[in-house]
Amino acid sequence: MSTTLSESPDVVLIGAGIMSATLGTVLKELEPSLDIAMFETLADCAQESSQAWNNAGTGHAANCELNYTPQRADGTVDISKALEVNTEFDLSRQLWSHLVSKGAIPDPRAFLHPCPHMSFVWGDENVAFLRQRYRQMSEHHCYHGMEYSEDKGKIAEWAPLLIEGRDPKQAIAATRIVSGADVDYGALTHLLVAQLTAQSGFSVHYKHRVMDLAKAADGRWRVSVENVVTREIRTVSAKFVFVGAGGGSLSLLQKSGIPEGHGFGGFPVSGIWLRCDVDAISARHGAKVYGKAAQGSPPMSVPHLDTRMIDGKRSLLFGPYAGFSSKFLKHGSYLDLPKSVEPGNLLPMLAVARDDWQLSEYLIGQVLQTAAHQFATLQGFFPLAQRHDWREAVAGQRVQIIKPDRHRTGVLEFGTELVASADKSFVALLGASPGASTAAFIAIEVLQTCFDDRLTSDGWLGRLKEIIPTYGIDLKEDAAACRAIRASTAKTLELEFV
Ligand SMILES: Cc1cc2nc3c(=O)[nH]c(=O)nc-3n(C[C@H](O)[C@H](O)[C@H](O)COP(=O)(O)OP(=O)(O)OC[C@H]3O[C@@H](n4cnc5c(N)ncnc54)[C@H](O)[C@@H]3O)c2cc1C
Fold it and tell me: Cα 455 to the chain's mean position, in Å?
């Protein structure tokens, strides 16, 4: 593994989570001669949000997450966002398939397992919503193979823990897609960084925190990096900088001073899971089951009961329960939030505090919830759950974007946002959702935003199409291409195909 510090790399990647690891991988695939340096404050990669237990490991394809399919006033369901997320995941599948096929990732089972994705609701109104959602989604080729049932016997076949002990008179409904996945994004990040460090021209520097960055007169970025053990500060000069620092991205964007970053703020939401490692229970639940979110809750707080495969062991995860902490990273500081407030983002932040009272109300409610209340939410999904089989586990921190907006002065965003400098030499990734699943889509967006001059037929385009065969094809529109690529990636990645 190369840890020699190159004084003038072509590319600096800040942070060693799934996003930097994926972008680094794509760039080296396209141009093996690139000199890339990755800096990470912590002692290893994937120790923050990308760590396996700090996310739910859902291969988000909007199969089951009800927050992507809002109901319209006329009772129909808007599936447009779901289709976007669904086909963005195809890009990740293609990148992973490429890496498995060429042997850069030796075994897909090291990070990926087939896992049916289910939505599950109770109550007449929610059942009517799910029925309508199923009608519309199952008509679209992207959701080929989606199943629906209101029958308790059928749902018990799919996921018995949902039914045992439930009031037989309660109206329930579920959908299922068997081609879903459970992804260990921590293991994947390790695999990506390992195959990168095996290549010449890539170095990773753990225990190195990026302190500051500034554009110099020669057009290159001067990136100041502190060795957190020796406190020594070095400066490297890079042509291109990607800030994939998760909760640390906002402060680095502010330090960069690019005008495009003006006015952005962040609002941290922490999370807690309930985790069950009892084999006799986890062996009886093989699905990711997403329910309906409480009113006002942010999208990542949709409750779900998940099968997880981590380090060869099957466990269950339920949650997340949202909470509040002023830290922007798990290993961050309580001063992160106050220090992020600057004159440029004060008005947007105040506007969000004024307008998004539903989120504040939701978070206060979550923080004040007793352990008994929390457990009752799990029992809504798994009626016979026993307290002693479950323990609390940290779900990590997410920083929601507060975006400057001309009309309202500030708006809270739940998606992700790339903020690039006009000269395309710098880009920071802010935000949280849909997250790790769309890392390949985000890497491609970085290419289109900052390397568009290389995406030509005599540049990177041919190679990009080898890695992502459907690049340039809209899989929402092209049913045949969609089916063909899903069949092929399912085979390589050992996923179900229907
Ligand atoms: C509760 C929860 C559930 C989730 N569930 C899912 C899910 O089911 N599916 C999904 O796809 N996504 C999910 N996500 C989202 C997903 O985890 C994140 O989108 C993804 O891991 C972000 O990756 P990243 O590389 O941007 O950030 P991270 O993994 O957080 O990595 C950023 C790295 O940057 C480092 N860093 C920060 N500042 C500096 C600095 N100044 N210098 C050097 N290094 C620095 C940090 O130490 C860290 O290692 C979930 C997130 C949470 C919190």
Answer: 26
Ligand 1 residue neighbourhood (C-beta within 6 Å): 14-20, 39-42, 47-50, 54-58, 60, 185, 209-210, 244-246, 248, 252, 271, 300, 320, 329, 395-396, 398, 429, 432, 434-437
pLDDT in tens, 69-104: 999 999 999 999 999 999 999 999 999 999 999 999
Q: Distance (Å, rounded) from C-alpha 279 to C-alpha 411?
A: 44
Gyration radius (Cα) of the chain, Å: 22
Distance from Cα 307 to the centre of ligand 1, integer Å: 21
Q: What is the mean pLDDT of the chain?
A: 92
Taking the CB of residue 1, how many other CB atoms lie within 10 A of it?
11
CA of 49 to the centre of ligand 1 (A): 3
Å from CA of 429 to ligand 1 middle: 11
Residue percentage of the chain with pLDDT more than 90: 75
- Distance, in Å, from the CA atom of 111 to the CA atom of 61, rounded to the nearest integer, reads 17
CA distance 275 to 122: 23
Tell the residue nearest (CA) to atom 18 of ligand 1: 435
Substitution candidate for ligand 1 out of 38, 45, 48 with most atoms within 8 A of CB = 48
User: Tens of pLDDT along 421-465?
Assistant: 999 999 999 987 678 999 999 999 999 999 999 999 999 999 999
Q: Are 290 and 66 in contact (CB under 8 A)?
A: yes
Q: How far apart are CA 276 and CA 272, in angstroms?
A: 13
DSSP-based three-state secondary structure for 327: coil
CB atoms within 10 A of CB 151: 12
Predicted model pTM: 0.94
| Residue 295: HSE in the Cβ half-sphere, 13 Å Cα cutoff | 3
